[in-house]
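Hi V.,

Quick status before I head out on leave. The structure for the redesign project is tokenized and pasted below; the design run finished overnight.
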């Protein structure tokens, strides 16, 4: 076995290598110090030390020259205090923040960014032009004011003398046509601004209110009811009384053991005992376990339109398209908004009774809305509603129900509104009117169909199809239909009954439109069903005097131009 030779330090070899010339760094080769030494062979290959150019890729032209900033990009580092300056920054030239921000995108090409920058610059130019115009207008007004002051100081007559009044009755005219014309001429001569001359009809022209004694009960009838319960061996007594002037309700408290199934038999027994043919039992009353005996009054107190207007929210003069029709039995105003009511069906309203629901609805709308907000269209055979066509709210002339193109005009309006709303990216008339200018706003259109039975009986399928389309799409577009169906012998299609959401039904022994109409009295008595409630409300329709209606029309025609 051979032993390995032990390594030893060779000092001579170490000194020999130390004395050799040290290897130069490649960048120092060819320096001026070595120019005299002559050519020297390089111990390295230059391509190894030369930086190779970047390889061009297929999509190199599409890449931005700088990296696009993201929300994770740090745009400004945290300030670190210096040992010499502390937190004091060195003095640098002030630069605009907008310029610094745009430097990030100076090498980034984007069509969207260029378009945004262009729109922003144009907007700023428009603002500058508007400021210049406003400043010019102010200077002109100041010069005009200075000129007027100088004329007044010099004793010039600035205002002309008003023309003398011709006659007393022209000045105090209710319609005020001559007075308004003279006022306009005077204001034009004086240089004053002439504003819109539109006023709402006052409550004073609505005639008289309902008689004040309509709430007094019939004590003799209350005693008869108590005696009838004693004779029928039923524990019950009258505890309160309410009335709307047409129908009185006696609230009766029964024994808790009384069964609800016996109410029809009790109704028949009370009719025979009290000798009342028109007696209706309301069971139970809302909020209580008692029943109500509804009896028509022998001496009714008519419900006037002024009472409906003053006792409801209509007197607040809001532009909410609310209408009042009548009073419920518990002496509350039956009012509803047209936008919620949708389309209205008036079923079984006979012409021989002065219970015109349409007059109450239209007068309620005319009292609080001008011709820019409301339009009325009439489809009828007679001239019963021609008075509404003389006011500025009229949409068109009266349309005949026997014409084949009866509702074609309204269907064209429906399609135009549908296209306009779709372009404005809205779904209802309220949103559309809030986005467009005042001149482009759409008015709420109310279409009155005087006799729906005549339209259905005329064998006009085009008109029926147009009516169904209006009923399906018209409510959000601001088009509402009020159909009066007087002939109860002609049945209404189930589809039409479903599309006419609000129903006001008078006496009908067959209960075709609303169940319970067979218990009503003929005349001023109806059941109303609204879309937000399935339970019908018994209401007494308000009466409209012809003089009151004509005074409202005169005020609108002569004072609203």
């Amino acid at each position: 076995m051979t032993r390995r030779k032990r390594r030893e330090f060779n000092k001579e070899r170490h000194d020999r290598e130390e004395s050799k010339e040290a290897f130069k760094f490649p960048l120092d080769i060819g320096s001026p110090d070595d120019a005299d030494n002559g050519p020297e062979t390089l111990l390295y290959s230059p391509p190894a030390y030369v930086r190779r150019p970047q390889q061009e890729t297929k999509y190199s032209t599409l890449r931005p020259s700088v990296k696009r900033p993201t929300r994770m990009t740090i745009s400004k580092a945290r300030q670190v205090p210096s040992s010499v300056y502390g937190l004091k920054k060195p003095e640098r030239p002030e630069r605009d923040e907008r310029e610094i921000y745009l430097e990030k995108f100076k090498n980034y090409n984007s069509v969207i960014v260029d378009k945004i920058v262009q729109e922003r610059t144009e907007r700023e130019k428009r603002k500058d032009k508007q400021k210049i115009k406003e400043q010019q207008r102010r200077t002109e007004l100041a010069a005009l004011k200075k000129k007027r002051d100088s004329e007044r100081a010099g004793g010039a007559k600035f205002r002309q003398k008003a023309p003398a009044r011709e006659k007393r009755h022209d000045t105090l005219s209710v319609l005020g046509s001559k007075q308004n014309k003279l006022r306009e001429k005077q204001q034009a001569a004086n240089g004053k601004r002439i504003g819109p001359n539109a006023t709402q009809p006052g409550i004073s022209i609505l005639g008289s209110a309902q008689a004040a004694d309509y709430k007094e009960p019939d004590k003799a009838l209350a005693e008869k009811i108590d005696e009838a319960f004693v004779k029928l061996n039923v524990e019950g007594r009258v505890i309160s009384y309410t009335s709307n002037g047409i129908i009185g309700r006696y609230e009766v408290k029964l024994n808790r053991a009384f069964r609800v199934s016996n109410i029809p038999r009790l109704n028949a027994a009370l009719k025979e005992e009290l000798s009342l043919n028109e007696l209706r039992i309301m069971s139970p009353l809302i909020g209580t376990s008692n029943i109500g005996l509804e009896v028509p009054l022998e001496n009714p107190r008519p419900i006037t339109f002024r009472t409906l207007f003053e006792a409801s929210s209509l007197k607040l003069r809001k532009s909410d398209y609310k209408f009042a029709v009548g009073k419920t039995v518990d002496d509350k105003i039956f009012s509803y908004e047209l936008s919620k009511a949708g389309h209205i069906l008036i079923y079984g309203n006979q012409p021989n009774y002065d219970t015109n629901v349409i007059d109450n609805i239209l007068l309620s709308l005319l009292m609080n809305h001008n011709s820019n907000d409301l339009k009325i269209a009439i489809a009828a055979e007679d001239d019963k509603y021609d008075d509404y066509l003389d006011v500025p709210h009229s949409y068109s002339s009266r349309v005949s129900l026997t014409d084949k193109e009866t509702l074609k005009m309204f269907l064209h309006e429906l399609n135009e509104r549908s296209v306009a709303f779709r372009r404005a990216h809205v779904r209802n008339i309220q949103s559309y009117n809030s986005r467009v200018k005042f001149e482009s706003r759409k008015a709420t259109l109310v279409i009155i169909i005087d006799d729906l039975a005549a339209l259905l009986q005329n064998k006009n399928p085009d008109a029926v199809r147009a009516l169904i389309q209006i009923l399906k799409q018209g409510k959000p577009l601001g088009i509402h239909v009020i159909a009066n169906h007087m002939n109860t012998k002609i049945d209404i299609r189930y589809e039409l009954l479903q599309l006419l959401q609000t129903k006001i039904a008078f006496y009908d022994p067959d209960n075709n439109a609303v169940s319970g109409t067979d218990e009503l009295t003929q005349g001023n008595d109806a059941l109303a069903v609204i879309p937000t409630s399935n339970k019908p409300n018994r209401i007494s329709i308000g009466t409209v005097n012809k003089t009151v209606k004509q005074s409202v029309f005169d005020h609108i025609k002569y004072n609203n131009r």
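Above is the designed sequence. The two ends are 133 Å apart (CA to CA).

G. will cover questions while I'm gone.

Best,
W.
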